[in-house]
Amino acid sequence: MIQEIKCTNVLKRNLQSTARILINRGGRGSSKSYSAIQFLVIQMLSAPKPIRILALRKSSTYIKDSLLKVFYEVFGDFKHETLVKYNKTEKYFSYKKSLIQLGSVDDPDKYKSTDWNYILMEEATEFSYDEFKKLLLINRTQKVSDRPNQMILP
């Protein structure tokens, strides 16, 4: 189902890790974000039952030019761009019953009573420690496979 893709060292480490928090380090252009999004797309496309993924930026201003752009690119690499649907109004991708919600923490309580299998904190250095702790609390839905629910900080 998943096409052969270029697998970076960052993606390999993410796929092998069962740590609760994945921190991808590296300089500009080191594939941190791209590999993190590849990882999330693999989880979405291969999950045995529906999963929920929250992909965040600190501010909603940057969603279109970063998160949205890279998700479209990765879905294209996987040859799934026509199978995955994007809801422009609500800013989420859906595949079967799985969901990738794009968002921001402009309103810190926005996600208070939600729960997620995976949370991506894009440009993690922009987030406060308090925001990180709040997000960690909502990364708690029932896990889908042998992987724990995970937070990814590229």
Annotation field: number of helices: 4
For the report, how would you describe the main beta sheet? 7 strands, mixed
Q: Any idea what the shape is?
A: globular
The strand line-up of the biggest sheet is 1-7-6-2-5-4-3
Beta strands, count? 7
Helicity, in percent? 25-40%
* Model regions low in confidence, pLDDT < 50 over at least 5 residues: none
What Rg, in angstroms, do the CA atoms define? 14 Å
Mean pLDDT: 89
Percent strand:
15-25%
Going by helix content, strand content and strand pairing, the class is alpha/beta
Distance between the termini: 26 Å
Describe it for me?
The chain is α/β, with parallel strands linked by helices and 154 residues long. The chain contains 4 helices and 7 strands. It has helices at residues 9-16, 32-46, 64-77, 129-138; strands spanning 21-23, 52-57, 85-87, 92-95, 98-104, 118-121, 150-153. It has a 7-stranded mixed beta sheet with strand order 1-7-6-2-5-4-3, covered by helices on one side. Helix 4 links the parallel strand 6 (118-121) and strand 7 (150-153). Helix 1 crosses helix 2. The model has no long low-confidence stretch (mean pLDDT 89).
Summarize the structure.
This protein has 154 residues and is α/β, with parallel strands linked by helices. It is 31% helix and 20% strand.
Characteristics:
154 residues; alpha/beta; 4 helices; 20% strand; globular
Detail the topology: elements first, then pairings.
Layout: H1 9-16, E1 21-23, H2 32-46, E2 52-57, H3 64-77, E3 85-87, E4 92-95, E5 98-104, E6 118-121, H4 129-138, E7 150-153
Parallel strand pairs: 1-7, 2-5, 2-6, 6-7
Antiparallel strand pairs: 3-4, 4-5
Helix pairs in contact: 1-2, 2-3
